[in-house]
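Let's do one together. I've listed all components of the complex below, 378 residues spread over two lines.
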Amino acid sequence: MNRDPHSWARALDSLRAEIWRRLKRGVQDRRAPARHPTLATVSAQGLPQQRTVVLRAADEGAATLRVYTDLHSGKIADLRASPVAAMHVWDKAAHLQMRLHARVSILTGEEVGHIWAQLPEAARLSYGSNPAPGAVLDDALAYEKCPREAAFAVLHLELQDMDILHLGPQHRRARYRRADGWQGQWCAP
Amino acid sequence: MNRDPHSWARALDSLRAEIWRRLKRGVQDRRAPARHPTLATVSAQGLPQQRTVVLRAADEGAATLRVYTDLHSGKIADLRASPVAAMHVWDKAAHLQMRLHARVSILTGEEVGHIWAQLPEAARLSYGSNPAPGAVLDDALAYEKCPREAAFAVLHLELQDMDILHLGPQHRRARYRRADGWQGQWCAP
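Okay, and this is what the predicted structure of the assembly comes out as:
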């Protein structure tokens, strides 16, 4: 009898399938670890920048992910300087670290109008503020939310590789690459 | 009567003190959110890289943090190319996101011999493996741990700035800079 709750970690195919299962669960379930990944970008000055984001879409076939943001946020400036990002998820229950690397397209305007149209009013509050995110304030609350479609952007992440670490009685690490058709290979943890 | 459990978020000084309190708790308490920050670096190719690390020291007076690593890990190669890092903590109970930016020194050999000497045998297993971390393997378990002092490195993070976000009924964001003596200023979330 197989008592290993993480037997999916033993083979490259089942490990990759588990990664996508957990990413897709992140899109659906507010309490899933992949709901709130950490997104890293590189600023125009070459400095790494990180922030928590909300995972909005995960397409296994295309190996793409999506995140929404305010068009005036710092990450947009970073991505205009360098259109690459890393996404990090630590899934504690699965003992699984996902390190995903992507090229990023910034989608705005008509391209994402159908997404904006379906956002509830409360959700729209995250897109658009006065002054813009990061502006210096005299008082902590001297800003106002002013949701507007023109401030809404979708980050479309085309994954290039996934570096996966499973912490078990013996650790396993696998690297998957778009260029290799995502077949994967083991590497030393 | 003050019913706000996060009243420390209302003033720049008390918010900064709370950040350091939680960072120091991360060093002491394995279950604290700041125990396992995400560390971001920039590779020689200019790509952002992230991984979970363990916070080993937090010195409020000097505004420095420490992390241990294998000298042959990818993050060391990144830091030799670009000696800067970001550290990210999401403290869920406190509704607090910490984005810390640092210049990084890599300490090895005699400089850190006193730390190595005090590491339990089990802890030493994280430093030194054959082949080195990231090397391609034919089989997932075709590697061995071979702890050795020569593979032990301490990352010394000299914080340059802290970008802090508190999510409350009204969000507050503050930025603190070494160059300003850490006095802090509010900015738009």
